[in-house]
Design a protein that fits this description.
Chain lengths: ~550, ~180
């Protein structure tokens, strides 16, 4: 066998690549993880406890540098002066968009990928989601249902550690939860008011998050320092760097190769399999190839599709594994930013102690029990009820001793609801190769053509109205409804472009995330999604990845792959 | 002995030089004005004020290395306007005015700024990552003073008693605990 041959190659080391690495190595496969970005040493790179006064711009960020190198990444609220190094350099990683259709592509290229900076909200999908396409005759039916994925949700939650409160809701199935985090006084008041005013329709629960509220599988409980997206030296939140990659490493079967920018997959027309992965070394720019028996494409939604598009052959002229013609179509992202905030009177002598890295959640209530008049699907709200700190001073009149004294104490409680809505799969929202432009490694970039449609806009409008309604019901004062105009991409829940489906004529992947056209090719990141639900998708990617690994290794052991 | 013209030229050149090695944009007079305004906004009490934590140096950094040229000019013009106001009202530089006179000028600036903001932001919802308001001198000055002060070690630790590692979360703690690790 050639020297650089592995049983399995996993492309990408983020939330799905980490899971593929763990599952495949634990099942005995010699596994190579190819990561386009640099290695990360948590001891040196995690910066969550670096005080603000040690930062040159005191948390305002290095604007000159970000204007120059990260003009797209800086639009992400999660990027700050501490963690901008966990986001890509936009100059090295360009892409193009259709005129007047902005798409904000927020990326992390390093070992750990975006799992270092993700929002950690972890929700299960339900059959309300998996059956939606079929029920409404939209796009292609999902080839799986909740019963197919439920045991895999159990499996990944048991390893990840998800804090949450069981509620028994059909549209938001309960998981195997660690103890829930607490709601603040304002949140409890609003929760009670929602239960009273919208019985059987709306409710509010504490956020479900991949953060440990007690020690779990060798990782310590959260110490409530707050800024998870800067790293976590106690490994209290889940990331591939904190959790799955160390587990994979412990098997002795893992090789992680950073600085490995995957150029393409090489298809062997005789065996009808992917035989090799072509890599451009990120530092030397040398082209290298690695052989393998099975490939797991986990490079993130748009990157995975880009790799397939760049791997075309005479047999697959429009992209590898694309006999359906669906590769690159149906790009989705959650539509976010309708909501409201307001002041919650009372509780003046109470305040939250510690920085809870989690908020509240209002599960989807539209099109659950009754039909909404002017849109399909629905949305959920994240949010919180907290007392604002000194930053409110910029909006308040005054200066001097009394003003300083006022700012040394927290402001009145404020409750905020922020909506995240489902995006319908649309054939015309696309990712294609733009061969007129290459990235820093000479690989053609993608051109993204994506826009919100009528249904997403209707959801956004309804979010604003229903958020304000709930605040009014809770007795909030000075209610400020808002409707943001965010370009797609910014929610960083991009999904679709290589969807799963029952029919090889209309989908790229089968019910096991295996390419219909190529049996040793699996794709388990967000590209596989046939619809988008309205809940955060990462937990579902993890469950699908573990499920696909189990299937792939079973087939390999029977000599079928 | 220097002639009057030479002396004037010397003073002019001197005023254009940064007041200390730590300053990159402000001359001595601008620095004194910024320091005075910042201390009026967040004065020394039983805890340090803006001057003690050198908010002026932070503002000089932002004006130099963060603001774009338009914002920088707006800030410096705004500073000059503070002196124009003090000369109109009290016939001297702002830094030479009495405390009550300085407070009167600041109150007018504060009032004008908040009125202008109310008018402009009627429909705009401010997002978390909005950059500090850069449309009005006093808005810039006040915001930078707050950031410079409360993100300084003394502002965070002595004034707010923030804890970097609270170790626990109590969602409805008594207010006595508020100053530690509050959210």
């Amino acid at each position: 066998m050639p020297a650089q041959t592995y049983d399995a190659i996993v492309i990408g080391s983020g939330i799905t690549g980490g899971w593929a690495a763990k599952e495949l190595t634990e099942k005995g496969l010699e596994t190579l993880v190819l990561e386009a970005g640099r290695p990360i040493d948590p001891e040196k790179e995690y910066v969550e406890h670096v005080p603000v006064w040690e930062k040159q711009f005191r948390g305002m960020g290095d604007r000159r540098r970000s204007d120059d190198n990260q003009p797209i990444q800086i639009t992400c609220t999660g990027l700050d002066e501490w963690n901008s190094k966990f986001f890509v350099n936009d100059k090295e990683n360009p892409y193009t968009t259709t005129p007047n259709k902005p798409f904000l592509w927020i990326r992390g290229r390093q070992v750990g990928g975006r799992s270092i900076t993700w929002g950690r909200q972890s929700y299960r999908w339900s059959d309300l989601d998996f059956e939606a396409n079929l029920r409404e005759g939209i796009a292609a039916d999902w080839p799986i249902r909740y019963k197919d994925i439920a045991p895999w949700y159990d499996y990944v939650e048991d390893f990840v550690g998800v804090t949450g409160q069981a509620e028994g809701l059909p549209q938001l199935p309960d998981g195997k939860f660690l103890p829930p985090m607490e709601m603040t006084c304002a949140e409890l008041q609003v929760k009670d008011a929602i239960a009273k005013h919208f019985p059987g329709e709306r409710m509010m629960t504490i956020g479900r998050a991949a953060i440990l509220t007690r020690s779990h599988r060798g990782r310590a409980a959260c110490h409530y320092c707050g800024p998870c997206a800067r790293g976590c030296i106690t490994r209290s939140y889940f990331s591939s760097l904190n959790s799955t990659l160390p587990a994979a490493k412990a098997t002795g079967k893992l090789t992680v190769r950073p600085h490995s920018v995957v150029h393409s997959l090489i298809f062997d027309s005789k065996t009808r399999k992917v035989s090799r992965v072509r890599v451009i070394d990120g530092q030397t720019r040398d082209a290298i190839e690695f052989h393998c028996r099975v490939v797991f494409l986990c490079a993130s939604t748009i990157e995975s599709t880009r790799i397939l598009l760049n791997s075309s052959t005479t047999e697959f002229p429009s992209g590898l594994a694309n006999s359906s013609g669906e590769l690159g179509h149906n790009l989705m992202d959650h539509v976010m930013g309708g909501g409201a905030e307001g002041e919650i009177p009372g509780h003046e002598h109470r305040v939250a102690y510690g920085h809870r890295p989690n908020g509240i959640y209002v599960p989807r209530f539209r099109n659950v029990k009754s039909k909404a008049p002017n849109f399909v699907r629905g949305y959920g709200f994240q949010g919180d009820g907290i007392r604002p700190d000194w930053k409110r001073g910029a909006d308040l009149a005054g200066f001097g001793k009394d003003y300083k004294k006022m700012l040394s104490r927290p402001g009145s409680w404020r409750m905020r609801f922020y909506g995240f809505g489902e995006c319908l799969p649309n054939q015309e929202n696309t990712v294609e190769l733009d061969k007129t432009k290459a990235d820093a490694w000479g690989i053609p970039v993608v051109k993204i053509n994506c826009a919100w449609r009528e249904n997403e806009r209707a959801l956004l409008k309804d979010m604003t109205e229903s958020a304000a309604e709930m605040l009014a019901a809770a007795g909030a004062r000075n209610i400020e409804p808002f409707t943001e105009d965010n370009a797609p991409g910014l929610t960083i829940h991009e999904m679709g472009t290589a969807r799963m489906g029952r029919d090889p004529k209309t989908s790229v992947l089968n019910e096991h995330n295996q390419a219909h056209d190529i049996q040793n090719l699996f794709l388990t990141d967000g590209a596989c999604m046939a619809s988008s639900s309205c809940v955060n998708p990462s937990l579902t990617y993890m469950a699908l990845t573990a499920r696909a690994c189990d299937y792939a290794v079973g087939r390999m052991k029977r000599g079928e792959i | 002995m220097l002639s009057r013209n030479a002396l004037a030229l010397f003073r002019q050149v001197h005023d254009q030089l940064p007041a200390s090695a730590a300053l990159k944009t402000f001359n001595a007079h601008q620095n004194a004005t910024v320091t005075t305004i910042a201390e009026l906004i967040i004065p020394q009490t039983d805890t340090p004020g803006a001057k003690a934590v050198r908010v002026n140096e932070f503002i000089d950094l932002i004006v130099t290395d963060w603001y774009d040229s338009q914002e920088r000019q707006r800030f410096l013009d705004g500073l000059a306007d503070v002196d124009a106001r003090s000369h109109r009202q009290f016939s001297k530089d702002f830094v030479d005015c009495q405390g009550t006179q300085q407070a009167e000028i600041l109150a007018a600036l504060d009032d004008e700024m908040l009125k202008a903001r109310k008018a402009s932001k009627a429909n705009a919802h401010r997002k978390k990552n909005d950059r500090p308001d850069a449309d009005n001198f006093f808005s810039m000055m006040k915001n930078l003073t707050l950031i410079g002060y409360y993100t300084s070690e003394a502002g965070s630790q002595e004034e707010l008693h923030e804890e970097i590692i609270p170790s626990r979360h109590d969602a409805c703690a008594p207010l006595e605990e508020e100053s530690q690790g509050k959210n």
